[in-house]
Each structure stands twice: as structure tokens, then as C-alpha cells.
Amino acid sequence: MFEVSVEESFAAGHALRGYRGKCENPHGHNYKIRITVTGEQLDTIGLLWDFKDLKRAMNEIIERLDHQYLIAAEHTGARVHQRRPGVGDRHHHGDVF
Q: pTM, whole model, 2 decimals?
């Protein structure tokens, strides 16, 4: 069995809705993604998967996530608005940032 992996990191924000504490507020984390491909045989030049292609596919996903505010798909009550300095409220049916 052969294996090839690529790894990259990105930063994004989120909030834990319904949590009572600091983490209910918007905050950020650094995330690490590792993609591993396994296979039974190599191609004619000895590659399982070209690193360049694997990194490109991973970076296409990371570009959509990096420095974004992540909202769980099942959180249908969330709304995000552009915030003016000094203006913004949290209310029961969604969030305004």
C-alpha cells in the first residue's frame, strides 16, 4: 500500500451558539487540514498522486475557508450583516455582527 499526504493550515472564526460563556461570542482558531491518499499501485513514473495536483485541490477549498466566519449548515437562524463601528446586537433569532 502506498500513501501520499499534504498538509496546510488556515484561520477562521466561529461562535458556539447556545453556549453560556466566552465561546458564545465570535472568536477565531487556526485549523490544520491533512489530506492523505492511499493506493495499491504507482503510475508509470512512480507517483501515487502528484503533490502539485493534490495541493492545488486542497488550496481551492482552503481559499474558501481562510479568514472566513464559519456557520454550521444546520444553523438556519444565523444571519451575518456588515457591522458599522459601535453598532451591533445579538438577538434570539439570528446574529448581527
A: 0.64
User: What is the per-residue pLDDT across 54-88, written as a single tens digit (0 to 9) for each?
Assistant: 999 999 989 999 999 988 766 555 554 444 444 44
| Cα distance between residue 50 and residue 48, in whole Å | 7
CA 25/CA 90 separation, integer angstroms: 10
18-50 residue pLDDT tens: 889 999 999 999 999 998 999 999 999 999 999
Euclidean distance between the first and the last CA atom of the chain, given in angstroms as a whole number: 49
Q: Taking phi first (over 0 means left), then psi (-120 to 50 degrees means alpha), and beta for anything else, what does residue 56 get?
A: alpha
Q: What domains can you pick out in the chain, each with its CATH number?
A: 2-71 (3.30.479.10)
